[in-house]
Amino acid sequence: MLSFWLSVILLPLTASAVETVLGVYIFSRHGDRTAKSTPPANLTDLGYSQIFTSGTYFRNRYIAPNATSRILGVNSDIVKQSQITASAPLDTVLMNSAQGFLQGLYPPVGSRLGSETLRNGEVVRSPLNGYQLIPIQTVTSGTGSEDSAWLQGSSNCALATASSNQYFTSSSYNQLLASTSDFYKSLTPLINATFSPDQISYKNAYTSKSSGPPSVREIKCKPMNLLVFDILNVASIHNASLPTSSPPLTESTLFQLRTLADHHELNLAFNATDPIRAIAGSTLAAQVVQALDAMISSHGTNQKIVIELGAYASFQSFFGLTQLTTLPNSNDSFLGIPDYASTMTFELFTTRPNTSSFPAAVEDLQVRFLFHNGTTDEDSIPTAYPLFGQSSTALSWREFKNGMNRFAVGGQEQWCKACGNSTGVCAAAAASSPPPPSSFSADTAASSTDISKAVAGVIGAMVTVAVVLVVEALVMLGAGLRVVRKKNRRAGGSGSDFGGGKAVSR
Hints:
Blueprint: H1 2-17, E1 20-29, H2 45-62, E2 84-89, H3 92-105, H4 110-113, E3 115-117, E4 123-125, H5 127-130, E5 137-139, H6 158-165, H7 171-179, H8 181-185, H9 188-191, H10 216-220, H11 228-238, H12 251-269, H13 279-297, E6 305-310, H14 312-321, E7 343-350, E8 366-372, E9 383-384, E10 394-396, H15 397-405, H16 412-419, H17 427-432, H18 465-477
Helix pairs in contact: 2-3, 11-12, 13-14
């Protein structure tokens, strides 16, 4: 009798806990690629495998007939073009990554489903065992980003570029530039065929920064994409002769390079006192809201899945704007460059019981943010995190939309005004109103990343004892910096694993 009444009491709780996913927006970084220092960068076979594996995971989560969180009304086998939108910048690595992701999401359907019978009775079979064609739209933001060494090089946002350049005049930057000088000089024998000695420094930890016309030496020393960590990271994955190099590129050295690059790029991607620096995250926020809004407006009859491929700057900027970098127990991955094939996912869902159709009331709609650092598969899945400094990972649609719109920049006119651009496509917007100040409001943004938590304990790990003592003093007396260890470091990813057997062609 007792068990009967317990079952009756718990029944409403069980029903209310059932979730129905109504649509998703997935933003993914590309897979493994060749070095930016030897343009054009290309997606490698490893990168193709990484991005295909992630696409396959999301198929099993949202689309397959037995999917764990199957989207309401989505076609499982043969893609329905009105249900999916995919986009990427006009960039070889990102476009090819988008194709690989979609191949995993909607794989070939075989000869039975991939055929049609004509009026005359002839059976025509689709090529490549029922390969499915899904259009990929091109977006202007981020075009050529994987061939650009400068983080803001593909944003075309004047004020964002100026804001990022301010980091190179900060005390934090100058301290690291000086204190890591000997460490970077020790790497000269490994990369002196690509870089001149004066280019091997924290200045080019990941993104090269030009402070004027190139010198004669820079013109002679090709290529101009000067990324110390990037070229050594690619070599650590693909160059089979690297372990026998002199000096050897050890895992601890690569970890130090990675941590310095993380700190370098986070400061270029986000600063709470000047949020225009995070323009990539602001435009992404607007795109997400617009896409989910379209799903809601159509009551789920059309677009259900939105896939976008983009560069790491969008991740870092968005993390800063949504306060993910300041969570009490923040994932360390939010403080650094996301690994290849990393994903951010926005789930639109409802907890209304017995949902067989799209909810009519917006009050029944919620949004959840999930992130995964690196290739996603069944053994390493995305994790939900709270946005905007809140404690809950599930936000009502209105809470989510209002939070995103505090810093979202959507539409050409708003972008032109925020960036202070006045020529080309922005000429009309400039004529209608004066340009804004160098920063715009972002009430919920986190504190400045000028002195990040990402570098403490790392500087000096491979440097002389004197440098160790100098850095230690700066850390202890300064801002309480700490070591960041990247999680989910997968073999062949952008981490420090020494995988692969291919030699990199130079």
